[in-house]
Amino acid sequence: MANYENDLLQDLESDDEIIQQDSFQSKLNDLIQSNLLSDSFQTILNYPDIEQVEDFTKLSKVYPLINELREKIIQFSNDEEIDYLNLLSSLENDLDQSEEYKFILLINELTTIINNEITVFVTLIKMQYKLLFPELESLILNPIDYVKVIMLIKQDLKNIKNYETELKLFLSGDKVLIIIMAVLQQSNNIPQQEFNKILSCGTLVLELNKLLQQLSNFLADKLSKIAPNVSTIVGPITTSQILIATGSLKQLASTPSCNIPALGVRDLSSTTKTKNIRQTGYLYHCDLIKYLPPEIMRSAMRIISGKIILAARIDLSKSSPDGELGQKLLSEIQVKIDKLLAPPEQTPDKALPAPVEQKSKKRGGRRFRKMKERFQMSDLRKAQNKMEFGKEEDTIMDSFGKEIGLGMSKYGNNGKLGQIQISSNTSARMSKSMINRLQQQQQQQKEKSIFDTDLDELIFSGTNEEKPKETKPTSKWLGGITKRKLNESDEVPNKKVKL
Amino acid sequence: MGSVFLPHLNTAWHVDQAILSEDDRLVIIRFGREEESQCMIIDELLFSISEKIKNFGVIYLVNLDKVPDFNQMYELDEDPFCLMFFYRNKHMMCDFGTGNNNKLNFMIYDKQELIDIIETIYRGARKGKGLVISPKDYSRNIY
Fold it and tell me: Where is this region: Disordered (chain A) (predicted)?
C-alpha cells in the first residue's frame, strides 16, 4: 500500500490543475503516512501531560479533516456518471486514475485510522469515567454505546430513571435495567472541569463514529453497483478493501480463495498478538469474523473467503445485480458458523464391562499337553541348575569367554552318569511351510547356478548334462540340530583343577 | 454438585429395598451429610464414575440426618461419610488395611482407585465371598 501512496503523491505533485484538492489529498496522505510510521494509539497515549489537555480534538489527526471529507463524500456521491467498475479496472493501467478512485483508496486507509482513534479516545474516557462509575465499562462492551450512555447521563447518576426511555433507544431493556441497578450503588463525583473533558472527548468519538458511518455508507452506495453480492456478505468496507487489494473485480474473481485472508495483513508481528490466527488482514476485521471466538475464526475465514470468491464471480457475470445470491450465500455462511459455534455433542462415559470371570475354554488334551511340553524346561537344563552339595561344579567357557556352570547335568538328578534322557519335544522345529520355503529356495539356487556358471558346459557338452544331486534339506536341518544337542550333552568339560 | 444427580434414599425402607431389589449388581451406598466438604468431594467422585460402573454397580446416597435408622447399627455417626457395599442383600466387607473392613470411610481422590475397589468387591461377591482384599493397601493413608 505504501507504494501506492508514494505513487499517488508523485502523481499529485505533477498535477498543477487542482491545487485545492491537492492540499487536501496530501493532508490525507500525510496522515496515512504518519500512521504507518507510528501507531496512533501509542502516540496519543504517550502524549505528555495528557491530563492537562483541554481540547482533545487537537489530539485527533482525523478531526481537522472531517468537514472536508464530508464535502468530498457529497461531491462524489453525486457524481453518477463515473462507473465504479471502470474505476477499479483502471487500476491496471496506472495512468488514468480519477480523483474519485484515489479518494476511495484513501478511505480504505482512513477507516482503520478512525477506528484506532475511536478506541484510543474511548480508553481515555474509560480511564477518567472509572472514578464515577467503574462498572459501566464492563456492563456495556460496545465502545460507541458506552460513550452514548455517558453523554446522556453525564454525572446525574441519581436521577438515572429519568433517562430510561432515552437509554432504551439504543440499548436493550435488560441492559438498561442492569445499568440502573448498578448506578444505585455509586456515590462518587468528578469535578465539573474534569468532566467537561470527558464530554468533549465523547463528542469527538461520536463525531468520528458518524464520519465512519458516512464513509461506509458512501462506499456501500458505490459498491452496491459493482459488487452487490460480495458486499452483502462482508459489508461495504471490507469489500472495497479486498477489491482494492486485488486490483479489480475480475482479478478478485480469479484469485484463489485461500489468498483472501492474507490480503491486508499489516506485519508479521501480528502473530504475537493473536495466538491462533496468523492472518489478521481485511477479512479478519470484518464484522462477520471480528466477534467470533478465536477457536473457530480460522475455519470461519476459510468458509467466508470461499463464498467471497463465488460472489465475486456472480458479480462479474452480473447475474444477480440486487445481491440476492449474496444474501443466500450469507445465510449459508451463518448456518455454517452457527454449526461451528455449537458445542460438541456430549457423549456419556462408556460404561465399563462387568468384571465377570469366565473359566477358560481350554482344558487340556494331547495336543495342548504336547504344546506345553515344548515350552517346558528340559531335564538337562533342570539338572544344570542344580548343584551337588560340597563339591565344586564343572564349568565350561562359552564363546564370549563367560564361565558357565554345568551343575549336575553330567550326572542327572540321580547322580548317575548318563541318566538324563533328551526329550525330542523341546528341540527346535520348523513349520511345514518353512520347510517348503527352504526347499524351494535351494531349488532355485541350483537352477540359477546351472544357467550362470555352467553355460559353456551346457553348450559344449550338449545334452550330456548330469543333474546335480538333490539333498533333502529337511532332514539335514533337523538332523543337524539333534546332532548338536547330543554333542552338547556328551561334551567333556574341562575340569577345574581341584585344590 | 454430584449429590444432586445421584439417587437419594429418603427412608430406611427405601434403603432396604435398594439393597434387596438389586439382583446382579453391587449396591454402593454412601452414608453421610452432603453439607460436609469431604462428603461433597466423595459425592463428586461417585457421580463421575456412576456412569462407568453402571454395568456392575449402582450408587445411592443416604443422608444421615434424614435416615438415622442405621447410624447405631453401622456406627455411621463417627465419620463425615462412609461407603458401604452390598450384593444380593449381603453386606460385602473389604480389607482396606485400615482396620475397619465394614466400610470405606477414608478419602479417595482418584476415580480409577475407587473403580478398582468396586470391581474387586464385585468379583469377590460373584464368587460368594464375604470379605475381599482391597487392590491397594490404605493403612498408610496420608491425605
Answer: 344-370, 461-499
